[in-house]
Structure of Rhodanese-like domain-containing protein:
Amino acid sequence: MISSFFSKGAYNLDGYHFKNEFTKSSDAVLLDVRTKPEYAPGALPSAIYIDFLGSAFSLELAKLDKSKRYFLYCRSGKRSSSAVSEMRKLGVEAFNLVGGIGTWPK
């Protein structure tokens, strides 16, 4: 059960469990919620970019397929944690990468 993988509260996963759950889930979507300057050097493979601080963030969330499982990351894990909270309020299953992109296992 996924709840056994939580590292710092509900829906927050450490790098290993985040990548494992994302990789094994057939309905998983990886979301990069960093700012443009943070995103510019590159993103994780297959990640969809939605700037958490952008004016269209709420509109982009509303367009998401609620039948999918979303795995979010940012630079440090704080914005993605906030985004996950917003998504869960909308009834979307979402998980945060604790510590941000730097904790994604190689």
